[in-house]
Write a structure and sequence with these properties.
Layout lengths: L5 H12 L12 H18 L11 H6 L3 H16 L4 H25 L3 E2 L2 E5 H22 L6 H19 L7 H17 L11 H23 L5 H38 L2 H6 L12 H20 L3 H28 L3 E3 L13 E3 H20 L7 H24 L6 H23 L1
Antiparallel strand pairs: 1-2, 3-4
Length: 446
């Protein structure tokens, strides 16, 4: 693993130092500061290299002649300011993760990073812990500074460290995407949702909720054990499935759980049917179709989070729709991939429409797309039929699920196909897109 050099120390000093500008959000509106961020994007992209700014590039960036991270930093700030303009404390918190959390992780990893992470040897435990502690502190302090007195201190510190832990784990994932862009945006989104939960956590300590969640977890440990015996999940997937299913059943009851079971059954059947044929063509799910921890989490963690937020925030309808959109997207994606690969047929890259072999990342076919659309519609209709949401929301959920899967194909064609991200990261993008699109479409159509 590389050691900390003077050049890298200078880079991280600038990286962290720029984060102190987030303090100005107490007096300056996000829109006003967005102009500065936009100027930073242009400056770093076109002017900085001509002014000797190559000293802020990493050595490998100098060899290839481009440094996307230097541009992505102000771009991430710009997006934070625009997307969360009505909650400047959220924009500040996301900026804190970017500047202080990520910067501390780099410094700690290069200085003390001898113990590597088991899921990503390029990252270290020292870096992950530093991101969590420094990032959590930065989020808590910035939220309280930008929005003084709006939230309780204990609540803000708890939320800050929770969001920072999630961001630290995301930052540690083995992808080739630049952490400057993706991690702070997702962290800020979770922070925005989490800040709505003040006062909503105490109810989960009541005897009724403790019993309900305990019962849900117990049921899911048993059902996930059955799935393990049927070789649909491995041992790690058993644990992850128990937690995801327990959260959905505990927080949304049998109606929400029915959608999750529907996804599991449709996904399992579509994966198993014609498995030998798909395996011979090299397009079958690895591990004989068994799902591991990361696969289960990528497809289910967004749904579980939405189920939790539907209880602890004042917006249950919003998060129930988001939950359904995430499940519909996961179902559509699985059916589109498995049925499309099984039936074959003309397959085209979604970004160029050029013919590609079946199973190519980003490749779509009429059969697969139809299967995905039907899967999304079945999940959406089931939720409406059992009263999880109003019948008029069925179309919204179905459209969100299909649209998210098509967006995922674009990511597959542009990023996964080039080795920048893995399949689990793409699945996480898919379910998050389904959740956001369901909420966005509902708002637009209303």
């Amino acid at each position: 693993m590389d050691r900390l050099s003077v050049r890298e120390l200078c880079r991280q000093t600038v990286h962290i130092g720029a984060g102190f500008l987030a303090l100005t959000l107490r007096w300056v509106s996000p829109l006003q500061l967005a102009w500065l961020a936009a100027a930073g994007v242009l400056f770093n992209a076109y002017i900085l290299p001509r002014l000797g700014g190559l000293g802020l590039w990493r050595q490998e960036e100098g060899r290839v002649g481009r440094a996307p991270g230097v541009v992505f930093y102000p771009l991430a700030v710009l997006l934070l300011l625009l997307v969360f303009g009505r909650q400047p404390e959220v924009a500040a918190g996301g900026w804190g993760l970017l500047a202080f959390g990520d910067g501390a992780a780099s410094l700690a990893g290069l200085t003390w990073g001898r113990r590597q992470l088991p899921w990503n040897p390029a990252k270290s435990w020292a870096g992950l812990v530093a991101y969590w502690l420094v990032g959590g502190t930065a989020v808590a302090l910035l939220v309280q500074w930008v929005a003084p007195g709006e939230y309780g201190p204990r609540f803000v510190w708890g939320i800050g460290f929770g969001v920072a832990l999630l961001a630290a784990v995301l930052e540690s994932m083995p992808t080739k995407l630049d952490d400057n862009l993706v991690v702070p945006l997702i962290g800020a989104l979770v922070l925005a949702c989490s800040l709505w939960t003040e006062g909503g956590w105490a109810q989960l300590l009541e005897a009724e909720w403790v019993a309900r969640i305990g019962t849900a977890l117990t049921i899911n440990v048993g059902l996930a054990g059955v799935a393990f015996s049927l070789k649909t999940v491995d041992r790690s997937g058993w644990v992850a499935s128990s937690l995801i299913g327990g959260a959905v059943l505990g927080f949304l009851g049998w109606r929400g759980y029915l959608l999750l079971l529907l996804f599991f059954m449709l996904g399992t059947v579509s994966t198993r049917v014609g498995y030998r044929s798909k395996a011979l063509r090299g397009v079958a799910q690895e591990g004989m179709g068994r799902r591991s921890t990361w696969n289960v989490l990528a497809n289910g963690v967004v749904a579980a989070a939405c189920a939790l937020f539907s209880v602890v925030t004042p917006f249950p309808e919003l998060f129930i729709l988001a939950f359904a959109g995430a499940v519909a997207a996961a179902t559509a994606d699985t059916l589109e991939s498995e049925i499309g690969q099984l039936r074959g047929g003309p397959t085209h890259l979604i970004t160029t429409l050029k013919p590609v072999p079946v199973g190519t990342d980003g490749g779509v076919s009429a059969t697969g797309t139809l299967a995905g659309a039907m899967g999304s519609l079945v999940v959406a209709a089931c939720g409406g039929a059992v009263g999880l949401y109003s019948p008029r929301s069925v179309v919204v959920v179905a459209m969100a699920g299909l649209a998210a899967t098509l967006l995922e194909s674009v990511v597959g064609a542009s990023l996964e196909r080039r080795g920048h991200v893995g399949n689990d990261a793409v699945n996480l993008f898919n379910t998050l897109s389904g959740a956001l699109l369901a909420v966005g479409l509902a708002w637009f159509l209303s």
